[in-house]
Write a structure and sequence with these properties.
Elements (H helix, E strand, L loop, with lengths): L4 H17 L4 E9 L8 E9 L5 E7 L3 E11 L5 E5 L4 E2 L4 E3 L5 E8 L8 E8 L5 E8 L2 E2 L2 E2 L2 H16 L1
Parallel strand pairs: 1-10
Antiparallel strand pairs: 1-2, 2-7, 2-8, 3-6, 3-9, 4-5, 4-8, 9-10, 11-12
Bound molecules: copper (II) ion.
Length: 169
């Protein structure tokens, strides 16, 4: 390599460096949600998160222009078959870590939806991780009732909402 080209190459590398730094380390795939239950303004959300970078990343904020607020929750089914949910305090991804949100595990709860969610629509959700540019994922709306019968996750949320109301009284 000639001595003339090297400084130019160095300048080029310097020019590209900020671009590389702005590359998102967090990958979000398989975003989906369900149709809302008639009369309820709450919805669910699922996706898969992966930290492809070399540093821990903490999730700081989740928002959607279609909802008043979004909460991270985890649900699990107890020995009696009853589903329980509670908020997730802190979500961190180690380098290389992958987290799959699912109906019987971690999920998003969208509160105060501006309008009912209909099959085929998309719900944009923006996630902010520390030291990362915001990432927007489109949650694809799936039917409430799928082949094989009624899914229970929304029913769980109806119970959950009752519970939330009780705590306010
Ligand atoms: Cu929930």
């Amino acid at each position: 390599m000639s001595k003339k080209i090297l400084p130019r190459l160095a300048a080029l590398v310097l020019a590209l460096a900020p671009l590389a730094a702005a590359q998102a380390a967090i990958e979000i795939t398989d975003g989906w949600t369900r149709e809302t239950v008639p009369g309820l303004d709450v919805g669910v959300g699922y996706f898969t998160l992966k930290n492809t970078g070399t540093h821990r990343r903490e999730l700081l904020k989740i928002t959607s222009p279609l909802a008043d607020g979004i909460e991270l929750q985890v649900s699990s089914v107890d020995a009696q078959g009853v589903s329980h949910m509670w908020p997730v305090g802190k979500l961190e991804l180690r380098p290389g870590e992958m987290l799959r949100f699912s109906p019987n595990g971690r999920h998003l709860m969208l509160r105060g939806l501006k309008s009912p969610l209909r099959v085929g629509a998309r719900v944009p959700v923006t996630l902010v991780f520390e030291d990362e540019p915001p990432i927007t994922v489109q949650l694809q709306v799936r039917p409430l009732v799928e082949e094989g019968g009624m899914k229970t996750d929304h029913m769980d949320h109806m119970d959950h909402m009752d519970h939330m109301e009780h705590t306010h009284h």
